[in-house]
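Exercise (ungraded).
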Amino acid sequence: MFVAGLLLAGLPLWFLVWRLKNQLRSCRAQAAALRSECHSADECDALRAEIDGLRAAGQAAATEWQARTSALAAEHDQALQSVMRQASEVVGASQDSAHEVAGAIRDLYGIEMTFERWHADMTVLLAHNRGMHAKNEEFSLIVRQMVMVALNASIESARAGASGRGFGIVANEMRSLSARAEALSMDYRRTLYENDLITTTTFQDMQAGGRMILGAVRGLELTHRKGTEATALPLECA
Amino acid sequence: MISASACESLDRMFMHSLQSTFTTPEGERVALTRLAQSLPDAGAQMVVLMIASHTFRLVMALHFPQADDALHILAPGSQAAEASQVLRDQMSERGNMCCGMVNREIGRFFAHTGMSTPHIIDSRSGPFMTALPHAYASHWRVTIDARLHIDASLCMHNRTPMDFEWHADAQQEVTGELEFF
């Protein structure tokens, strides 16, 4: 009975002790949790401080970067302006040169007048050659007549017999001279025909060569015009 | 130096241009015969033309017989009083046509060429063509009809080696393609 009474009396006490132990455990756990929370808050503060530091460094870097970018942009603008100025000067110089080249090409076209003059010279030279042909033909007729006269003189000297022997020698000499003059005249005629061809081909060579040059000048003018049109376009910067 | 291929090509060009310049009275293609030397008739005149480049010069000559013999084919119906001038005009025109065709074709191989105007001189100057400096010469007889023939000569003088190949058919094919486009 006593034991039972003791058990009955001790049971609430045991329960109370058990509850107190549980509460103590809970308090310890809470205390541990609080200690842990307190530790995390310190880390957070540290991290926050680190973040603040990094943010400040980032802002400093951004500020520095912006400053450098602005400086580079200004430098680039300056360089671009300089290049554009130089390009503009080059274009100006090129346009001046182009005007000079255009003037030179115009002058070069005047060379055609030289070729026309050469052609006129050839016509004069060939007319002169024709005159020489005519004179040679006349000379040839005279020579032919001389041959006839010399032949007649030879016949007459033969008729005269011994008294005409001296005259016969002179007549033979005249025939010989006439034959040489005739050969010379024929050779001269051939030379004149050869001269006609040489004169014609020489002047034609000049004329055709001149046209070849003018053709090349026309090509040059076309290329020059294209170049001038290209430089006349306004300079654009991207 | 001028290659065999270039010589043959020049001959083909010349023959092609002669056959394009002259036809028989019936409008048929004229016959061409190669000659050792041009043999113009007495009293004939020749029209001389030249194609020049900085590397070569090509002399061409066409020998035409006296006006009466030539004009009945070349300019039928022309007045006798002006026969001489009509013949000179015909000579210049035919010479220009013939030389112009050769100039156009040779221009496919040489960038810059120029052609002279025609000039008429006595055919007795013809034999001296080969006395001029030259690397290649050829002579042809163009038979227009039984009464009329025209002798033609070509004389090439080059200062640098010359080598090219030209065929009339190939050029016509190329032209056809271009026209097609």
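Further reading is listed at the end of the chapter. For now, observe: The helical segments of chain B are 4-21, 67-74, 83-106, 168-180. Chain B is about 35% helix and 25% strand.
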